[in-house]
Specification:
It is built from 17 helices and 13 strands. By secondary structure, it is mainly alpha-helical. Among the domains are: about 150 residues, Alpha-Beta Complex (set domain protein methyltransferase, domain 1), CATH 3.90.1410; about 140 residues, set domain protein methyltransferase, domain 2 (Alpha-Beta Complex), CATH 3.90.1420. The strands form five sheets. It has a three-stranded antiparallel beta sheet with strand order 1-2-3, with no helix packed on it. The protein has a three-stranded antiparallel beta sheet with strand order 4-9-8, with no helix packed on it. The longest helix is centred in the last third of the chain and has 35 residues. About 35% of the residues are buried. One of its GO terms (biological process) is inflammatory response. Pfam families: Rubis-subs-bind, SET. Keywords: Cytoplasm, Inflammatory response, Methyltransferase, Nucleus, S-adenosyl-L-methionine, Transferase.
Length: about 450
């Protein structure tokens, strides 16, 4: 029976939780105790990092000592890493080596994860498998109704990701069947689509980059994956800098920080200078106030603002296509990108200015009229995207009321679209207040 702590106890508890900033220490939980014991048996020693639950990022790692630039955040021995070498040394190895055509390193890792998860208590990797997410929020797991709410460029990539996982499952059925001698149950029930989807998302969202020499038993796709237990609890921030890689001397995968981190604060690393669309596509999350984020403008949207009767339109589009100026056109926190304005300037060239198109690609301004027209068109496109984003956010809030089962996924798209809206509103403000001649 628990005793009441009284007012003094409550005060002490409040003070203690405050010292842990916004994170609640989770190292007492059984799954983390087992994981740390399992890692220690494989040579991992760490006394500074603690699993914790954070308000903004969810599950992560906090430090029990202040970190300075140049400090090692984590050093994970090779024995703790799950690679294709791990797979080949398991009972799956012989089957993979015999199978033709060779399987990809990605499929080998997925197969291993599914098999070990199915093994349950018998799996030597159980302490790690127990702390892996049960579900994921990358596009491969999103319902079509949710994918339809994504911005057009991301929607296409999300649909491609779903198709890719479906095709991997379809093309791997024969290989999965060949593993039947290893299992008492039917491989069809073990290696089903939801199992593969879970394993694919685990590899896609949680692996670190680690190059391995090519083995004949694998297809020619690069073998660059390693699952890193405990290390993969580190969350992303676009505002920190780290250095990471495999240390040949210590035979460990190490991460060094280039930033300061206070005691009891969450230790964050940077997965790369990715915008929110890339983060959602690759990892299934969105970063608030991401400095790398931008809103993409499709070529179709761009061309709506220029007359189809322009005799030089076809030539202008061809020039932009040949010089790769129809892709990666964006609005960011600092307004329309140089690439977007360049494309608008080329499309807005008057007949007598057309010969100047090369100069525009090098950053020259053919005329004040052309410059002003480009900025005015950018403002119109920006306003149109603001209205479109607001409309989608309204749809999302209605769907959240009607589709309880989609609430988590809808909240993710809502966050992405809300960040987009902030960027567009900032861009609209910059265009409106610009000293570049817009009236």
């Amino acid at each position: 029976m628990k005793k009441s702590r009284g007012r003094t106890g409550r005060k002490r508890r409040r003070k203690h939780s405050k010292s842990f900033m916004d994170g609640v220490n989770c190292s007492h939980k059984l799954e983390f105790i087992r994981l740390k014991k399992w890692l220690k048996e494989r040579g991992f020693e760490d006394s500074n990092l603690r699993p914790a639950e954070f308000w903004e990022t969810g599950r992560g790692l906090m430090t029990t000592k202040a970190l300075q630039a140049g400090d090692v955040i984590i050093s994970l021995p090779e024995k703790c890493l799950l690679t294709t070498g791990t797979v080949l040394s398991s009972c799956l190895g012989g089957h993979i080596e015999k199978w033709k055509p060779p399987v990809s390193p990605l499929l080998a890792l997925c197969t291993f994860l599914i098999a070990e998860k199915h093994a349950g208590e018998k799996s030597p990797w159980k302490p790690y498998l127990d702390v892996l997410p049960k579900t994921y929020t990358c596009p491969a797991c999103l319902e079509p109704d949710v994918i339809n709410l994504l911005p057009k460029p991301l929607k296409r990539k999300a649909q491609e990701q779903k198709r890719l996982v479906q095709e991997l499952f379809r093309s791997s059925k024969a290989f999965f069947s060949s593993l039947q001698p290893l299992f008492a149950e039917s491989t069809g029930s073990i290696f089903n689509f939801s199992a593969l989807q879970w394993a694919w998302c685990t590899v896609n969202t949680r692996t670190i980059y680690m190059k391995h020499p090519h083995r004949e038993c694998f297809s020619l796709e690069p073998d660059v994956y390693a699952l890193a237990p405990y290390l993969d609890l580190l969350n992303h921030s676009p505002n920190v800098q780290v250095k990471a890689g495999f240390n040949e001397q210590t035979r460990s995968y190490e991460i060094w920080t280039n930033s300061h981190c206070k005691k009891y604060q969450e230790v964050l690393i940077c997965y790369g200078p990715h915008d929110n669309q890339r983060l959602l596509l690759e990892y299934g999350f969105v970063a608030m106030d991401n400095p790398h984020s931008s809103v993409h403008v499709s070529a179709d949207t761009l061309l709506k603002y220029f007359s189809p009767l322009d005799k030089q339109r076809k030539a202008k589009v061809s020039i932009l296509k040949d010089h790769d100026f129809l892709e990666n056109l964006t609005f960011g926190w600092e307004g329309p990108s140089w690439r977007l304005l360049t494309a608008l300037k080329v499309l807005g060239l008057a007949a007598e200015e057309f010969a100047c198109w090369r100069r525009i690609l090098f950053g020259d301004v053919p005329s004040a009229r052309n410059e002003q027209q480009a900025l005015a068109t950018a403002a119109k496109i920006c306003q149109c995207l603001i209205e479109e984003t607001q409309h989608v956010l309204l749809q999302i809030s209605q769907l959240k009321r009607d589709r309880e089962n989609l609430k988590t996924h809808l909240a993710l798209v809502e966050m992405l679209r809300s960040e987009d809206l902030k960027i567009l509103q900032k861009s609209a403000e910059i265009l409106c207040n610009s000293n570049l001649g817009i009236t």
